[in-house]
Amino acid sequence: MKDNISPNTKVYYTxxxxxxxxxxxxxxxxxxxxxxxxxxxxxxGEGSGLGDKDITGEGKDRASLDLPGVQxxxxxxxxKT
Length: 81
Hints:
This protein is mainly alpha-helical and 81 residues long. The protein contains two helices and no strands. Helices cover 25% and strands 0% of the residues. The protein has one domain.
């Protein structure tokens, strides 16, 4: 991402939470970084594949389209900034 933007643009990064995390431990740092930014790009979703940690993929069905773990809660907190 940094290779495709103006050299005058500052990019901040921190991991607020993992795909299926149940802990909000990373929120504080994510919110701190978000407060410095003019634009927030949050990457969320789920893991797809055949591994034990993958949530969707071949032979794996979900009853809900909700984001796994605390991702939705993190997005709500980021939106407030």
